[in-house]
# Entry
Amino acid sequence: MGWAFAEEYTITVKNHTITASEWLAWRKQGLSNTEISALLNISPSMARIIARKFREAGVPDPQYRKRKPGFVGNLNTMIDSGAYVLGILWGTASTFGEGYWVRHRQKWYVDVVREYLGITAEGHESYSNTGSQWRLKITRAAEVATIKNLLERYGWVPRKSRGRPYPSVP
# Structure
């Protein structure tokens, strides 16, 4: 369903009818699901459901997957620990969609990247036909931008590329 049809789309909750245009205006103002839930006197989970229904109807959502930025660490490759973390990222990071995975069989490597860069996501254990591994899924916009800028600055290419240079750091 395209946006032209979605303009007519409405959702009724607690005797209040919300139009697609009204929802889009709130989202363009930067209101989060939690702020909209307070405005409508509904639970934040209900606001998330409403947001999903509007997205599914084709209503653009400028706040989707956007989080208020927090501190994201920077990597100083001039010191040993920073260069070491760059090496971990270089060898374990892979792209997916607009984010990154950091994967390793040992939890310690995932935790080092997470703690050093201040990543908010938690690592989790997963299983595959090659055995178990720890994975850190990085999707927060500020964190993705930090990782992307860092890796691109040193010429990183995805793990399964034909030619993979080493990072050129002092």
